[in-house]
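Training component of the fellowship. As part of building independent skills, the fellow (R.M.) carried out the full modelling exercise for a liganded target. The chosen ligand was coenzyme A. The inputs are recorded below so that the supervisory panel can assess the work.
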Amino acid sequence: MSEEQKVKVKTRLPVPPPLIAERKPIHTERLIIRPMNEAYLDGIHVLRTQPEVMIYTVAGRIDADKEVTREFMSRFLPPYDSQSYGTMICLASTDEVIGTGGVRVIDPNSGWPEIGYTFKTEHWGKGYATEWMKGWLSNWWTLPRSEVEMEVDAGSVDGPGESPEKIWAVVEGGNIGSKRVLEKLGFRKFKQWTEPDNREGFPDKLTLVGYVLSHES
Ligand SMILES: CC(C)(COP(=O)(O)OP(=O)(O)OC[C@H]1O[C@@H](n2cnc3c(N)ncnc32)[C@H](O)[C@@H]1OP(=O)(O)O)[C@@H](O)C(=O)NCCC(=O)NCCS
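Fellow's submitted model of the complex:
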């Protein structure tokens, strides 16, 4: 496990975020970033049955069936929309779902919100993750906020007390594409650690890298 030193900070977070019924799609040059919607279950199931994608997720394996995908989606749907901010990423030209992304938990008890994202393999390398993250972040930073006090990883801040709000990401050391996306968006690496890796066919140890992005304004 990561050796976590925690410090207490006073910051701001979008708690609670606007509920899903109040959210609007975000339009970027090539994408429509939609609030999670069960009507898109089939498209998300296709994404979540691609082994090359799922190996990099918390689950570490493909969804066994549509019920597992439905359970994944439910974490972003009512009543959990008061604690999460997840999106489906669709091509503006066809409305095909090509990815998912957002934060699963917005709760001061969990530290900084952790951003996660997945894209179908046939759409990798076209700049979509970068385009989504730019659009998603610009929306995220405009949500109404409340003051919160919380404990966060000491390396993610300058010290205890008042802190600009942050968002963080955890990436496998070998996931060059994901690290590159984060760095292009201004995230900085602040820690690296190893954990046992239980995935079949992988070395026993998994190297993880923590990145953080600060909202300075
Ligand atoms: C990681 C992931 C989201 C990237 O999506 P994407 O749409 O291909 O990303 P983008 O095209 O916006 O940017 C990828 C960048 O990484 C670079 N890159 C990708 N693989 C690379 C490699 N092996 N070596 C060097 N650079 C690489 C690309 O060149 C691009 O950088 P550039 O714009 O400077 O050229 C996608 O591969 C994915 O869904 N992977 C599986 C799930 C995952 O890893 N999620 C993140 C978990 S933290």
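The panel noted the following from the submitted structure. The pocket of coenzyme A is lined by residues 53, 56, 117-119, 124-130, 169, 171, 175-178, 180-181 (CB under 6 Å). Residues 6-215 form a domain with the Aminopeptidase fold (CATH 3.40.630.30).
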